[in-house]
Amino acid sequence: MNLLFFFYTVMLIGVALVACSVSLVVWLMTRRRDCVVAALGYAVYGLDLSLIFFDEYARNKHDYLVTFEQPLTHPVPSLVLGLTILLCLWVWVLLRTHVEVKLDRIMTFVVPVGVLMLVFVPRSGASGTVQQYLYWLTRDMALLACLVFAGVRYRLTDSRAVKLDLERSRTFFNVAAALILCVIVEDTLMILIIHPPADSVAAGSFFWHLQERNISENVLMVATAVQLFRRYREIFSVYARHPNEGDLGGGAVSMDGGDVASKLALFAEAHKLSKREVEVLDLLVRGADVQGIASELVISPGTVKAHLHRIYGKVGVNARADLLDAFWRR
User: Fold this and answer.
1) Which is nearest to 293 in space by CA: 285, 284, 302?
2) The pLDDT of residue 255
3) What's the mean pLDDT in 261-272?
4) N or C: which end of the chain has fewer CB within 10 A?
5) Collapsing DSSP states into helix, strand and coil, what is residue 123?
6) Distance in angstroms (rounded) separating the CA atoms of residues 51 and 47
7) How many CB atoms lie within 10 A of CB 138?
8) How far apart (Å, rounded) are the C-alpha atoms in residues 263 and 34?
9) Bridge partners of residue 123, in order along the sequence
10) For the stretch 6-45, what's the b/e string if a residue is b when 16 or more beta carbons lie within 10 angstroms of its beta carbon?
11) Where are the alpha helices (DSSP H) in the chain?
12) For 105-153, what is each residue's pLDDT tens digit?
């Protein structure tokens, strides 16, 4: 049975490392902050899993039981890693919902969460089942707070483009909400209600291995990785079609606007483009030349060029390459 938990943990660490690596690749292409924040978050989550993994290995060598009445083996590293994961998630949510990242907005979230986690962290001389539960519940509620913020942002924003961008991720946010609720329920059951049998080392070890892994939280991590991979797929697709634009100063594609449609809406709103100008730009970023745009929109090439020059003026560029660069960098 320990072998099953071994492969399960290795698989999760692998997912975290792959998500971290892909996020770094996209960051190198785009220099977008949300990519590097995601990469850091997955890297730290992998370290958090590794800490649990090696603690279990050490305990198995000495064959003794551990319960939630005892302190964490590494309270300070656990606290630092957990808070860093939540910090990365919070900054990513701010970027994903198109909210300007400022120090006061970061501290408003991090300070209360950090204080509560510091107070409740199970350490030598101050531990117990209730304290363990409050420590992990603080982490769970911080996850929920990030999701609630995204929902409130969606409800209250006056920007049609931001609403459109968030609307396209509604399914993911609904799945994340369900999984976060499962995380809270699972922690409640595993810490407060279900207790490992004390008369059997083997059975106790199995239940402790199961309790140390919050399966719902692990599934949530994998779900966020899948969502990011879906968004990155669009980036790689466009980058492959426009490698030259990607070489112009270090980046061709952006994560902040999601796919082309939602990013186009954000870009058009920021630069006050007309409906026809948006249609021209849409075809341009998808690889069409002047003649192709003219054929698609059933207008003359001269009219297309006139629209492009108006777009250049509104964006503040002088050429097609500069326009594409501005579009993907925003």
Assistant:
1) 284
2) 36
3) 81
4) N
5) strand
6) 6
7) 22
8) 15
9) 126
10) eeebeebbebbeebbebbbebbebbebbbbbbbbbbbbbb
11) 2-30, 33-62, 75-96, 103-120, 129-156, 160-167, 170-187, 201-212, 215-241, 243-246, 260-271, 275-285, 290-297, 301-315, 320-329
12) 999 999 999 999 999 998 877 678 899 899 999 999 999 999 999 999 9
Token reading at 113 = 């969460």
Cβ atoms < 10 Å from Cβ of 273: 21
Q: Residue written as tokens 């399960």? A: 8
193-56-115-38 Cα dihedral, nearest 10 degrees: -110
Q: Contact at 8 Å (CB) between 123 and 72?
A: yes
Alpha-carbon distance 323 to 315, whole Å?
A: 7
d(CA 24, CA 2): 33
Residue showing tokens 């991590």: 221
Three-class DSSP category at 126: strand
Q: What is the pTM of this model?
A: 0.78
Return the pLDDT at 60: 57
Nearest CA among 81, 185, 91 for reference residue 146: 91
CA 78/CA 197 separation, integer angstroms: 26
Q: Does residue 264 sit in helix, strand or coil? A: helix
| Token code pair at residue 110 | 């991090």
| Distance (Å, whole) CA 284 – CA 277 | 10
Task: Tell me the residue type at 254.
Answer: S
If you ran DSSP here, which 8-state letter would residue 72 be given? P
Residue type, 183: V
Average pLDDT over residues 264-273: 85
